[in-house]
From TrEMBL:
Coiled coil: none annotated. Residues 164-346 form the Fe-containing alcohol dehydrogenase-like C-terminal domain. Residues 374-444 form the Catechol dioxygenase N-terminal domain. Residues 10-152 form the Alcohol dehydrogenase iron-type/glycerol dehydrogenase GldA domain. This is Alcohol dehydrogenase, class IV. Its cofactor is Fe(3+).
């Protein structure tokens, strides 16, 4: 749990297409009657359209906003505002025009209605940065926060690609720093991730279709959410550096943000691992700094402070200025560290967390070659993606890959018509139980299924009821009588019941070359009452074959090879689904750590001591057990 303080901004937000038309009703809603229009000088006729929409409410116009809000420009606008007696400003333009509106509002108390045309996000923050004599100072006050923001997607459709990208990364920077802000909270956290995801998604597509309304809507929504984060929590190193570079060296605002963000993020990454991981997730690339740099390259945005006009000689002083006053930031701020960061940003290097390279293109290429029936295509494509992902996520080495190939080769070489090491591998990794659970056991009315295991042999000998399948092998005599019914309880005469089990030492007949013919396995047909009866011996716990690759794996991973004692059954009846299952001896060993994860509670049953005269089929002296069980199988 972490403590936080959070206030929701009182700004009213109007979002949509062609919402410029709402400007007059929004001003009227505020009860204002005399508007000074502040229009971005680069917007052509948009200022005229706003003025027109305001009609008689517009009493003046100022088109001279300048980046970083120089106080001298504010004073010119202030003189005009007083001259026309305005009680409201309507600003249409980027962050510079918004900045001027804020500067006027904080000096006079006039209301503000802002129509943002870039993605700076300033319109939803109570922050104002102003420059005077080469120094940029920032102040924050609720009076600075605009009353109303009208987001009109149409206004940014014509924003040139260059500004679009840098401005969108400027917004992304607010969201990025919000995620590791010391006063972060659940609300800004969610907004920030949503903003990053939307902005990254839009940036990947905007070059191909800059006027697309959906892309622009994503960017504008991202800007609003990210701006809300900026207005709510404290920013760190990235904003501080950009503030210094813009205020002291006159570098352009959003291009500076775009160049610095990947480097600031890489600098903070070792101290903000969880935030960087989530940023990477939102960007769709775990190497978040590299991903942002690559987005800049792909969209043709600047990547170096050198191309923005910063002199190499200024780097040392900039590092000094940025560390002059302490402020909260995940990574410690050292002059040496910041000098390194600035040098890399100046030179336009590609910062990286040093993780594995991006290989999506290779995965996509492989998957795109897969043709054939839809299910096959889907399964193989997904398998390829997961295998590639496994190799990439674990930074698989050549030696590990080679060891894996050799393991699988040996597993295959151990397989023949009697031994199935691959099934054993699947069993001991729990895969067989997963597939079993997906395929069977879906209805509560039927007896649960269990894995087939590697020792079933096709075509077991057909036996008479009462036969002793142990054929003289030592062990506690076990009499078994099972009934096979449908889910409604009606018996299923003629049902075919295959059974198989291990001997007293835990071996199946196929593991004992000296044994002649099948033992401890057989096929019975149910009588008119749906019953099957035979003699055998009490099964005991046993190790799965540990002399092969599966045994090597169990030993290497500290696992025992034992299976809980059980009898295998395969049941087939006309008009019914086949059931493969096992009955486990209650009280037996390893019920809670079965090596193949095959135990299900409903299949753990009593094998009680037999009483009275033993049924025919075996001569019994002394202790014997008497298992009775009813299987319910589902109609097909
Ligand atoms: P900007 O407002 O200076 O605009 C950049 C350029 O884009 C300008 O040449 C402008 O004419 C042009 N432009 C804007 N919209 C256009 C459109 N739709 N079509 C064509 N051209 C268009 O730059 P910005 O990056 O939006 O804002 C930067 C300023 O905002 C800086 O002063 C910065 O300090 C401030 N800012 C403040 C905050 C805050 O919370 N206080 C937050 C972000 C930015």
């Amino acid at each position: 749990m972490s403590d936080f303080r959070y206030s929701t901004g009182p700004t009213r937000v109007v979002f949509g297409s062609h919402t410029l038309a709402d400007v007059r009703p929004e001003v009227e809603r505020l009860g204002r009657t005399r508007v000074l229009v502040l229009a971005d000088p680069g917007l052509g006729t948009v200022g005229d359209r706003v003025r027109e929409a305001l009609g008689a409410l517009a009493v003046g116009r100022f088109d001279g906003a300048v980046m970083h809000t120089p106080v001298a420009v504010t004073e010119q606008a202030l003189a005009l505002l007083r001259e026309v007696g305005a009680d409201c400003v309507v600003a249409v333009g980027g962050g510079s025009t918004t900045g001027l509106a804020k500067a006027l509002a904080v000096r006079t108390g006039v209301d503000q209605v802002i129509l943002p045309t870039t993605y700076a996000g300033s319109e939803v923050t109570p922050v104002l940065g102003e420059t005077d004599g080469g120094t940029k100072t920032t102040r924050s006050s609720p009076d600075i926060l605009p009353e109303t923001v009208i987001y009109d997607v149409e206004l940014s459709r014509g924003l040139p690609l260059g500004i679009t990208v840098t401005s969108a990364v400027n917004a992304m920077a607010h969201a990025v720093e919000a995620l590791y802000a010391p006063d972060t909270n659940l609300v800004t956290d969610r907004l920030a991730l949503e903003a990053i995801e939307r902005i990254a998604r839009a940036l990947r597509r905007v070059k191909a279709d800059p006027a697309d309304a959906d892309i622009r809507a994503d960017l504008l929504t991202g800007a609003w959410l990210a701006g809300t984060c900026l207005g709510s929590v404290g920013m760190g190193l990235h904003h501080k550096l950009c503030h210094t570079l813009g205020g002291t060296y006159g570098l352009p605002h959003s291009p500076t943000h775009a160049v610095v963000l990947p480097h600031a993020l890489a600098y903070n990454a070792p101290y903000a691992k969880e935030a960087v991981r989530r940023i990477g997730e939102a960007l769709g690339n775990p190497d978040a700094p590299a991903a942002i740099h690559d987005l800049l390259v792909e969209t043709g945005a600047p990547t170096s402070l050198r191309e923005l006009g910063l002199a190499e000689a200024d780097l040392a002083q900039a590092a000094e200025l940025a560390t002059a006053k302490p402020y909260p930031n995940p990574a410690p701020l050292t002059q040496e560290g910041l000098a390194g960061l600035l040098r890399a940003a100046w030179a336009g290097e590609r910062p990286s967390l040093g993780g594995p390279p991006r290989l999506d293109w290779l995965t996509d290429q492989v998957v795109s070659t897969i043709a054939g029936p839809p299910r096959l295509r889907h399964l193989l494509g997904d398998l390829v993606r997961r295998l590639h992902g496994f190799a990439i996520d674990n930074d698989l080495t050549q030696a590990e890959w080679q060891a894996g190939i050799e393991f699988l080769t040996r597993t295959g070489q151990l397989c023949d018509d009697k031994r199935q090491e691959f099934v054993l591998l699947s069993d001991s990794l729990g895969v067989s139980s997963v597939v079993d659970a997906l395929t069977n056991s879906r209805t509560p009315e039927t007896t649960p299924s269990a894995v087939l295991g590697p020792f079933y042999v096709e075509g077991p000998p057909e036996l008479e009821h009462g036969t002793d399948v142990a054929d003289g092998l030592p062990g506690v005599p076990l009499h078994v009588e099972v009934t096979i019914t449908s889910t409604d309880g009606s018996p299923l005469p003629g049902a075919v019941v295959d059974i198989w089990q291990s001997n007293e030492d835990g071996f199946y007949d196929v593991q004992l070359p000296d044994l002649e013919g099948p033992v401890l396995r057989g096929r019975f047909r149910a009588d008119d009452g749906g019953r099957v009866r035979f003699w055998s011996i009490l099964p005991s716990e046993y190790p799965i074959p540990a002399d092969g690759t599966v045994g090597d794996m169990l030993a290497a991973t500290g696992r025992h090879p034992y299976r809980a004692p059980h009898l295998h059954f395969m049941l087939a009846a006309e008009g019914h689904q086949r059931l493969i299952t096992q009955l486990f001896v209650a009280g037996g060993k390893y019920l809670d750590s079965d090596a193949v994860f095959g135990v299900k509670q409903d299949l753990v049953v009593d094998f009680p001591a037999g009483t009275g005269t033993p049924p025919p089929g075996r001569r019994v002296t002394g202790e014997w057990r008497d298992l009775r069980f009813t299987f319910r199988i589902a109609p097909a």
